[in-house]
Amino acid sequence: MTTDSPTLVAAPALWPAQAHIPSVIDRQLVIERGEGSYIWTAEGQRLFDGTAGLWHANVGHGRPELAKAAHDQMMRLETYHIFGRFVNDQALALAERLAAISPIADPKVILNSGGSDAIDVACKLARRHWQREGRHTKTTILSREFAYHGLHGFGTSIAGLDFNREGYGTESLIPETARIPLHDFDATVALIAEIGADNIAALVTEPVQGTGGVNPPHGEYLSRLATLCRANDILLILDEVITGFGRVGTMFAAERFGVTPDLAVFAKGVTSGYAPLGGVFVSPRIWQPFYLDDTATPIFRHGATYAGHATAAAVAMCNLDILEREGLVDRVKELEQQLDDRLHGMASRRSSVTEVRVAGFMGGVSLTDDLDATEVTDAMIDRGFVVRPLRGNTIQISPPFITTDEEVRTLVDAIDETLSEQEKK
Ligand code: PLP
Q: Does the predicted model carry a pTM greater than 0.85?
């Protein structure tokens, strides 16, 4: 070691593995309480949660009803696994309820612990489908440039944000993946022809890209992709981890954009973050062969101890009750209008804004290179608002659905003032 080698930073035992440790360690925000659309740091600062955490706290924080649902379920049965002959009543009930609102007709529902898990299941099942059909070359999984599908095995491999895929010694952690462009339909057609549809199992896409910068589909792009997939026998996997359960003003984005996927992945909003839960809606063409009344019927062979966790399922059902009772999916439509109007109004006053993109109650504000979205979001914390930097020097705005009109106004005003201040530097 030379004398000017970097020294280790002093840090707690917890390794927050999505953080650049030396940049954050001495200014970590320890969140210890939440209520409604607000969270509190250990130092007592109140922050408006302008991102709903990681797009998950849709019904807001600190709901006693959800705590009670978890408590009551744990007092009866914390959980029981769903391997072999065993299932638990809560997993059964939740799957029935989800099937009734699914973007896929007559689906089966696979439950697990979160979005990355569910992406692994969907990609695995897509490949399993074609192997079982005897079409053994159909293995490649396509995903879009700038996509984020979590960071388990498949999510890392199909990441469209390249930095999430790098450092593992291979182009793709799991072999046979490829990226298509974000919006260029003709280039996608050409790429499919180049790889060969006979080599492609599935195309995975977020209906509205989240972490990639809040990128809604251009025009009829999504329905054209769906038609292209159908024509080429490529399964369409919609990643509704952010958009599911109301974020775009319909229960699922599939409905808003008029597409019917073969598999749809959900997480976050299913429990609003009150319990770790995710899952996959599976269409009949994929599940039926596993349900034939025959000794030769195969088993998918995917499971985990917490798949169908009873307490998480009970919490999810309570969360769905809240969404329905309070009309929160319809409320998102009003909030979208408010956010859209206010952000565009703000952008017209600010020379540092290059583009505003809004779909549902999610917005992205892209900035010129003169400003840095990370610095802007840090300054917003000082003002009492959480927003988040995304790819493309973009600020994420995705508050809880219980946000008031007045809170939308104060949030956008705070962005306006922060940008105005930073433009002067
Ligand atoms: N897919 C999308 C679109 C996401 O935004 C995320 C997380 O942000 C995931 C998948 C992964 O979900 P999780 O973090 O629950 O594993």
A: yes
